[in-house]
Each structure stands twice: as C-alpha cells, then as structure tokens.
C-alpha cells in the first residue's frame, strides 16, 4: 500500500524514502516500488481512468461543451521529452481528456509538441461530444490552427483565458504607446486592463468560480489495485519487466520510415 500510495499521491519515491530514513523507519526499496508500479498500478489506473472518462463523456452527449485546455512539458525549453495536455469541461470542472505526447512522435521537435497534443485532443473530443468552444492560453501555433489551420472547419470558437487576454492587451497598448504622440496610452494602460478584467468577470462569488479538488475516487482505485494483486496468483518477478508501452521501446530516433534503397541508388 505504501508503494501504491506514493504513486497515487504524485510523490517522489526518493524524497519519501529519505523521509523514512530520517525517521529511522523501514520503507519498500526502489526496485520493489517500480515493480509494484509496473505490474499492479499502471494498467489498473489506466482502466479506472478510461471508465471514469467514458462516464463523463456519456453525460455530455447532446449538450454544448465548452472546454478549457492547457499543455505542460516535463521540462522547460527545447530539452522537453514529453508533453501532457489536459482538458476540463467548463460547466462541471471535470477532466474530460488527458493526452501525453513523446518528442519522438513529432520528429524530435519539442517546440510543436503542445500543438500536436492539442490537435489530437480536439479531434478526439470533436468526435465524442458537441464541442462548441475551446479556451486555451495565447499559444501562437494553436491560434493559427483554429483561425486558418486544419481545425478551422470544425466550427469551434477559440477563446483565450482572461489572464493571457489581459496580458496581450497590455503588451499591444504598450507597443502602440511607443509611437510618437501616443504616450498618453501609458497613463490609461492600467485602467484599460482593469476594465477588461471587469468585463470578463461573471462569477459573483469565489465558490461559483472555483471547484474544490476532491479525492473521493482514491479508495475505489486503491481497492482495484489490491484486487489485481490478490487475483494475480503469483508474486512479483525478480526482474522488473518492461511494459509494452514503455517509452524506451520507441528507440532514440523518431518513427519516420526510411527511404527505399532503390530510390537512394537512383538519386545517386
């Protein structure tokens, strides 16, 4: 249970092990922790998530859905290897989609990972529910996709979240103020941005705007993981098996088909 809940709580094994060491308490070793994760937890969590996601999608059938989405890389800059794109339904604050993209799926270009993850998310949700609006941050590539790219014919309204909208307005006003004779705009900059925030405000109370995060599903998920362990009939193998979806199976190169030898010989 300790190994399972380290994973479910999003904690780092090394930090938890160091905590137990400082308290002079025993803890499951690293090899066992990762075997528990691979053999009993990952597939159970995926199945649990897909079941919950199907229930949520089913409830949205026949209704207009406004989605809020954003991507997050595992590290900043051009060294990112993975991008996770999460999408929430605005009306209920429920997660309706989570997708993860590997840099090797984009020709080893981390710059376009969020764009590709967004495309996959929109195409999947467009086929499942009536997606009428999608709110994102001010991502230039995503904005181009929705205005004149491959997603413009879906008829989905693209809007920016309020923070990025206010930030962009402030930048444009500041740029315009650099023109000779427009210095007065800097005096009005703060008031204009504040007015934008006021216009965007719809919720009267914080309770209407925020949704508390709950963990009511954790006990059910724990029970399913324990049930999988009990029904396995055998203990854990001595060596940690490599999962079929292990990223290491992709290899260091992007999955791009090579040119036929005949073409290479003909070109030379």
From TrEMBL:
Sequence ranges of Basic residues compositional bias: 258-268
Region: Disordered, residue numbers: 232-268
Record's compositionally biased regions (Basic and acidic residues): 237-249
PANTHER family tied to this protein: SI:CH211-108C17.2-RELATED-RELATED, THAP-TYPE DOMAIN-CONTAINING PROTEIN
Protein name: Uncharacterized protein LOC113042334 isoform X2
